[in-house]
Design a protein that fits this description.
It is a single chain. The chain has two domains: 190 residues, Glycogen Phosphorylase B (Rossmann fold, 3-Layer(aba) Sandwich); 149 residues, Rossmann fold, CATH 3.40.50. It is α/β, with parallel strands linked by helices. The longest helix has 20 residues. The protein contains 13 helices and 13 strands. The model has no long low-confidence stretch (mean pLDDT 93). The chain is 40% helix and 16% strand.
Length: 354
């Protein structure tokens, strides 16, 4: 099958979360024998050499009143400047609704929705006009595309239920991380994303309770950006790391008290793929295959500190969860497995459309 992926992100191994999903998706489709290409229109130059199947074509976004009015009338329209050539033998994917304007005139097409703009805004208490605008654009893309897809059943339901769930793809390292014996909890995140900042606030609030239960417990805070962490006993800010694996190797547990945001959390998938056990809330496993979600410790927010403390004190259970989680991710979210599921959903959608 000939497939073209269009994304605002570039497929980089250490790039944005969406870019890492894109890289794993493309690699999986290629390994499954499909002919693929990708057009990436972000105005940020790639930091890594892109795979042979991807090209970077930056779109300069206009500013000012005219651009604002255009965005109100046609949300997320900037990608249309790509002016991609039509080819009825190629299925073109908008890898996020932001890219749908680039593929709207190409038939057949598909759109992949990662999260609900509306539900995520509610999760962090910031329901503003831009959230409604994003929700409206997402629903429009889902209604008009040939094949609507979503990385979460929660997201699909929020957009009217028409989109089929597909698993997000993640690279699975050839070797698992070495298990860390000491009680070190890690939160690795990009701190420009509001739900991550809320999760950090919740974790810092729960941390004194964890420390009371676990002697010598340490919390490591890593990732790009400037997390808001004041002086706290047993808390260390690691900051940005060259590779996500460098941070994941420091922790005995990924601790992520996720607010009720939507879509798969790449940090959770990558941790489990590497063999790092995860303690999170129900939203932290949204969009994951059931077997994968069952291999994480999922606790209500009010029980999160107790669940984290219990796992930090139990090396045997950590090892068991690490092995189970890694195997489950490999079965459902590894590049080839996710690619096969995506193509099956695409074929079913094209059949319905015909």
């Amino acid at each position: 099958m000939r497939l073209r992926l269009v994304s605002e992100h570039t497929p980089e191994l250490e790039g944005t979360a969406t870019g890492r999903l894109l890289r794993a998706t493309g690699d999986g489709l290629l390994a499954e024998g499909h002919e693929i290409s990708a057009v990436c229109w972000t105005d940020r130059p790639p930091r890594e050499e892109l795979p042979a199947w991807a090209q970077w074509r930056p779109v300069v976004r206009p500013h000012g009143l005219a651009a604002h009015l255009q965005a109100l009338w046609r949300p997320r329209w900037a990608a249309s400047a790509l002016d991609l050539p039509p080819d009825p033998d190629v299925v073109t994917f908008a890898e996020e609704p932001l890219s749908y304007a680039a593929v709207a005139g190409l038939v057949p097409n598909a759109v992949v929705v990662h999260y609900s703009s509306l539900l995520d805004a509610r999760a962090v208490g910031g329901l503003r006009p831009t959230a409604w605008q994003g929700h409206r654009a997402d629903r429009r893309a889902v209604r008009r595309t040939t094949v609507p897809l979503a990385y979460s059943k929660t997201v699909a339901a929020a957009l009217g239920g028409a989109a089929a769930w597909i698993p997000a793809a993640v690279e699975v390292p050839a070797e698992p991380l070495s298990l860390v014996d000491r009680p070190a909890a890690l939160l690795l995140a990009g701190w420009d994303w509001a739900p991550n900042r809320v999760a950090l606030e919740r974790l810092l609030a729960a941390w004194p309770d964890v420390r009371r239960q676990v002697t010598g417990a340490e919390l490591l805070v890593a990732g790009r950006g400037a997390p808001s962490v004041g002086p706290a006993e047993g808390v260390r800010v690691v900051g940005a790391v060259p590779r996500a694996a460098d941070a994941l190797a420091m922790g005995a547990v990924l601790a992520f008290p996720c607010p009720p945001s939507t879509g798969p959390k790449v940090k959770v998938l990558e941790a489990m793929a590497g063999g790092l056990p995860v303690v999170t809330t129900p939203a932290g496993v949204d969009g994951l295959a059931d077997e994968v979600a069952a291999a994480a410790v999922v606790a209500r927010p009010d029980a999160f500190a107790a669940a984290l403390a219990a796992l930090l004190q139990d090396p045997g259970r950590r090892a068991e969860l690490a092995e189970r989680g890694r195997a489950a991710v490999a079965r459902h979210h590894a590049p080839r497995a996710a690619a096969a599921a995506r193509v099956a959903a695409l074929e079913a959608g094209l059949s319905r459309a015909r």
